[in-house]
Every structure is written in C-alpha cells, then in structure tokens.
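User: Quick sanity check before I run a bigger batch. Here is a single chain. Can you write out its predicted 3D structure?
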Amino acid sequence: MKKLMTLAAAAALLASMNVSAEVKAGATLVDQGMMDGRTYHQNFYKKDNCKVCHGTDTPSVRPADDACLKCHKVDKLAKKTVRKDEEELWQNPHNNLHYGKEVPCTVCHGEHEAKQPLCNDCHTFKFTKHKQ
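Assistant: Done. Predicted structure follows.
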C-alpha cells in the first residue's frame, strides 16, 4: 500500500512538471485556460509574452509597478479618476488622502485574479469603474 501511495505522489509530481514544461515551451497559463487575463491586455497573452510585464517568460512573482507604469501613467490615472462631487474629491484612488500616488498597482488591481480596492478595507464608497 505504501508503494502505491509513493507511486501516486510521483505521478502527481511528474504531471505538475509536465505543465511547467508546456509553459516553458511557449504556451502561457492564459493559453492553457489555467488562468484568466484582462480582455484589454489580450495582446500580452500570446506565446512567450509573459516577459512584457514579468520580465521573464517563466514568471514566479508579481511584476513590479514599473511594468504597469510603462503604459499607465499615474498622473493621467489620477486625473481620470477625480471625483466630480465636491464632497468626494478626496476619494481619488490614484491620488488619495492617505497614500497620495504611492499605492502599488497590484494592491488594488490583479491581472489574473479579481481584487477589491484597498479603500474598501475601511471605507464604503464605491468605484463604479474599478478594473479589478
């Protein structure tokens, strides 16, 4: 019985290594249907394109903010997300009262998984156009 359990564990390990080999061969996790991606970033989900954001085609960590900021400028985002109502002016997620423009992008936005705005940890106001 012990040998059978060891063989099952070895088979599972080999199967997981096979997935890694497939990814290294060029199929991204998005291509394989193992991970979702944002529809407006579809051009990044092509073969060997993980490095656009992650800096490598075999990513193991979240990309740094400078990867996002190559295309998305903080000042432009802050202007775009200014609240119109006088009482809500301080509720700008990209230039807020607590952190200014210093909140890392991946705190509120996830490329491959939905996230909630950091503000929601304490506040109840809504960001209707939040891209999770």
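The first helix runs from residue 2 to 24.

User: Great, the batch can go ahead then.
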